[in-house]
Structures are given as C-alpha cells and as structure tokens.
Design a protein that fits this description.
The structure is a single chain. The chain has about 550 residues and is mostly beta strands. It has one domain (about 10-545): Quinoprotein alcohol dehydrogenase-like superfamily (Methanol Dehydrogenase, Chain A), CATH 2.140.10. Helix content is about 5%, strand content about 40%. The chain is built from four helices and 39 strands. The strands form ten sheets. A five-stranded antiparallel sheet has the order 1-7-6-5-4, with helices on one face. The longest helix is centred in the first third of the chain and has 11 residues, at about 15-25. The chain is globular. It starts with 7 loop residues before the first strand and ends with a strand.
Length: about 550
C-alpha cells in the first residue's frame, strides 16, 4: 500500500548555520559559468564528475607521487542510521568550505569540509512499498545551482533544497514508483535546467531523460530512450506493446559540452534483460550513447554499443569529453569504456567512430565491423529449456567495467578505468510479461575463472593498454586523477590506494574497513590544504598530508 506523501525530517543546527554563513561570507551563489569552468576553482567540486567533461581530473598538485605516502585520515563522517545496502555510492560536492553529500535512503547532509562536523541534515521519508528504489537504496549525489541543491529520489521525485539550511523549496514527481521507476543518480545542472534520468530498466518500464526548471521545478522537456510508434528507431522493435516496456533506463549522470550545447548520456539494457526472442531487432536506443540538444531535448545523434543486448550490459558508463588527435587529425571527442568490454572514442559532434578496441580479455567479441557493430564470437547463452551452453563463457552482467566512473588526464592523454575480467553463462527463460515486477527472463551462471579487476591506463587515440595494475577481486570502484601525476582508486576489500599516473606503480594505501563500491574519490583545497575524500560503507573519510 502507499503511505502518506513523503515528509521531511529536518534537523536545524544553529551553530552549523552560523558556520555555513561564515564559510560562505562574501562567496557568490553558484552560476552556470562556475559549473562550466568546473575544477578551475581548486576549492570547489561542483558536479558528480567535478566538471562538465566527466574527466574527474583535478588540477591540484599539493599531493604528489613523492609525498603521497604521507597521506593520513584528517576526519571521518559517520552516516549513522543510513542503511548500508551496497555501501556509500555518492560523490560529495564542495563549495566554500562546505561539503554537501547524499546517502542511502535519500539522506543528505551539509558538512564542514575541514572537520567533518555536521551542519544540517535532511531525510526524505519514503513509502514502504518501493519497487526498484527498495532494492537499490543508494543515491549518488546532488546537483547545484545558485543557492539550491537538487536531489533525485527513490520514490521518483526531484527535490530542490536550500543549500544553507537544507529546507525544501520544491518537490515534483517525475513518474510513479509503483510502476518500477526510481532515481539514484546525481542530477546534471545545465543553464538553469536540472537534468535527470530514471532507474528501473529491469522492470517493464520505458526509459527517459528529463529537464526541469531549476527555479520552479516545471518539466521543460523529456526524451524517451525507447521511441514511440512511427518514430525513428521504432522499426528496431517488433511492436508497440514491447516498446512501452522496453527498458533503456538512464540511471547514471551524463556529461555536457557548453560549446555545442549538447548533453551526452548513456542508456541501459533492453527489457527483458536476457531473453530477446520477444524483442527481435536492435532495440534502439538501449545500450547506447545519445547526444541531446540541451535546450529542447531533441536527439542530435546516437551510437549503439551493443545492439540487441542479451547480457544486461547497460551503456550507462560515464561519457568523457576532450579534444584529441586521432590519426593525425584533431577531433572534439567523447570517450567511453563500455560494459561490453570495448573502449570507444567518438567524434562528439556527429557520433563518428574513431577508435573501437577491446580493453579486456573478453572473448564475446574482439573487433568491430565497418558499421561499428561488435563481431560476436560467443554469446555465452544457454537457450530456454536446455542445460548446456552453446559456446564459451562471456563477461558477467556487470561487464568489462560498470557505472563506477573512469578518469582522464588530458596532459598525459591517459584514460584510467577499473576493468573487470569475469566469465559467466546466461541461462535464458521465456517469461510471461509481469505486472510491475522485476523482469530478468533468466539467471546467471558465474564461473570461477577469470575473476579479478585491474586498474588500466589506455591511450584513447588508439585504445592501447599503456599499463595495468592488479587490484584484486572483481570490484566496482571509480577512479580520480590529479595534475601532479597521482591516480586514486579503491577496491572491494576496502583498500583505498594511490598510483603513479605514468607507470601504475602503487604508491600508498589505507584500509578503510569496509568495501569501497560504486563511488570514486574527490579532492579539494581548503585553508591551504589539499583533501581527498572517499566513501566506504557508511563512513566518509577525508585524507590530507601529515606534516
């Protein structure tokens, strides 16, 4: 049953409000230009990725390969009652000495970025009959503009909060959570618009990307990742009924190019996940990247990485933007290390494939054809009613990498990604279409070998692996790089580590005591000190150099 409408639990800390006021005294509200310049301001981290390009590369240089072994915890923040679920997956924002962070079950806090002290806290009271939001209770962060923070919720709402007090300004639903919709991503704020995507593509839902007015919460446009009848791409589905439950969720944050005014967003798996006999065709625009006009939401171009996906290989990995010379010619590019095991460099203005090479040992496919489609060698399927696979095993459902974000160093022209080497068979099952229920149409048979992760540095102009460092068991931890030549990453065992950008040498590590999963480090300057923060379990840890 539905409960009462969502309520807010707000804890007001007078001393905290005074500290926020002191921290922000004379500091302007965050504008579009601030977001566009991103990490040019070393005391700030203003988006999920640090900047619009999605590269998670900080210009900070206080922490170097020579002194990183002096890193030590400076403060910790305990989320307290926040349920662990899969652990902390959010990435904090930092503005003028105040950190804004979200947690599981739509908790949120403002924290003193120098001490970890709570300044205010917010909790959204959620209904007790959540569907997708009840199974994956995580949240990956705020968006920010002016003096407002924007939060996407597990019960399919978008909320605006006053960043100085945590008080709610507006609250609008974007879908009905009972039908399987939710949101777990950090909103992307672009020129007065709050851009979000939906979770729940494993339910019989139809994915979309929305834009909301930051002042009022009014929806400005919606792009459906599954076309309607007669629309371009509809011929890649067998019928209208299948399209309306076609999946294609958009559950991770995208990137933005202010010069072209294009938004780049990855899309999820088709529905049902494993059995494709009832959805014959390429199933656009699932397992793709879409480039949308930020003003209207209209589709400018798309590239589908895995046509007719049968393995739950979402393409919701972070699109990373840069300018790059490929084959002697400069291009504005978007790069993605994809869940299907291939690394792609595309021209970001028209979607032209420039580079497409495997960055894992997958034997699902080893090359692309002239149209950019994978030449499938083994699909790893066990057909309905059969017990034995018809080929070799392929990467498991989490693929060659997952939603954990990569990093890109534009000076060294190295793309850093946490790669996964796994092996599984997919037992297909023909299901009746369920009503508002999880719809996987099969099960996974995980194999024992291979089963490990490696931090890999790629040359994005060729796809070549420049170096790799073994991380251990399969894990889903993001990567952050700095201009001084340090790369930060963690693993499922709870080790947070620093590596040399040029060689991959492990330089330092710290055991946090709980798995680091789905999140990535962020870094900022405060009072002359560079901090590096990472979430682990229900704890947020901030490190700095010892004297």
């Amino acid at each position: 049953m539905r409960t009462l409408p969502a309520l807010i639990l707000f804890i007001s800390l007078t001393s905290g409000a005074a500290l926020i006021e002191a921290r922000q005294a004379g500091g302007p509200a965050i504008g579009f230009e601030d977001l566009a310049t991103g990490l040019d301001h070393p005391d700030r981290w203003l988006t999920y990725s640090g900047n619009y390009s999605g590269d998670r590369h900080s210009p900070l240089t206080q922490i170097t390969p020579d002194n990183v072994d002096r890193l030590a915890p400076r403060w910790t923040f305990q989320a307290g009652a926040m349920p662990l679920s899969r652990g902390w997956e959010g990435v904090p924002l930092v503005v003028d000495g105040v950190m804004y962070v979200t947690g599981n079950d739509n908790w949120a806090w403002a924290i003193d970025a120098g001490t970890g002290r709570t300044l205010w806290s917010y909790r959204r009271t959620l209904p007790d009959d959540l569907t997708y939001g009840g199974a994956n209770r995580v949240n990956r962060g705020f968006g920010i503009l002016g003096d407002r923070l924007f939060l996407a919720t597990l019960d399919a709402h978008v909320v605006a909060l006053d960043r100085n007090t945590g008080r709610e300004i507006w609250d609008v639903p974007f879908a009905d959570y009972v039908d399987g919709f939710a949101a777990t991503l950090a909103p992307l704020v672009v020129d007065g618009k709050v851009i979000i995507g939906n979770s729940g593509g494993d339910y019989p839902t139809r994915g979309f990307i929305d834009a909301y007015d930051a002042d009022t919460g009014r929806r400005l446009w919606r792009f459906y990742t599954i076309p309607g009848p007669g629309e371009p791409g509809s011929d890649t589905w067998p019928d209208e009924e299948t399209m309306l439950r076609g999946g294609g969720a958009t559950w991770m944050t995208g990137s933005y190019d202010p010069e072209s005014n294009l938004i780049y967003w990855g899309t999820g798996n088709p529905n049902p996940d494993y059995y494709g006999g009832g959805r014959l065709g390429d199933n656009l625009y699932t397992a793709s990247i879409v480039a949308l006009d930020a003003e209207t939401g209209s589709l400018e171009w798309y590239y589908q990485f895995t046509p007719h996906d049968l393995h739950d290989w979402d393409a919701t990995q972070m699109p990373v933007l840069t300018d790059l010379e490929v084959d002697g010619e400069m291009h504005p590019v978007v790069m993605m290390a994809n869940r299907n095991g291939f690394f792609y460099t595309l021209d970001r203005l028209n979607g032209e494939l420039l580079v497409g090479e495997p960055f894992t040992g997958t034997q699902w496919a080893r090359e692309l054809d002239s149209d950019g489609r994978p030449l499938v060698l083994n699909d790893g399927l066990i057909l309905p009613g059969e017990d034995e696979p018809r080929g070799a095993c392929v990467p498991d459902l989490r693929g060659g990498t997952n939603f954990n974000p990569p990093a890109y160093d534009p000076d060294r022209q190295l793309f850093f990604v946490m790669a996964r080497e796994s092996c599984a068979f997919y037992q297909q099952r023909i299901d009746e279409v369920p009503d508002r229920q999880l719809f996987m149409s099969g099960t996974l048979r995980q194999q024992p070998e291979p089963s490990y992760s490696a931090l890999r540095a790629l040359n994005p102009a060729t796809g070549e692996i420049v170096w790799e460092t073994m991380i251990g068991d399969l894990n889903q931890t993001g990567v952050t790089s700095t201009a001084s030549g340090v790369v930060f990453a963690g693993n499922i065992e709870g080790d947070f580590a620093a590596f040399d950008s040029e060689t991959g040498e492990r330089l330092w590590s710290y055991y946090t005591g709980y798995p680091i999963h789905g999140t990535a480090a962020m870094t900022y300057m405060l009072d002359g000190v560079q901090y590096v923060a990472i979430g682990s379990g229900s704890t947020l840890v901030a490190f700095a150099l010892t004297d």
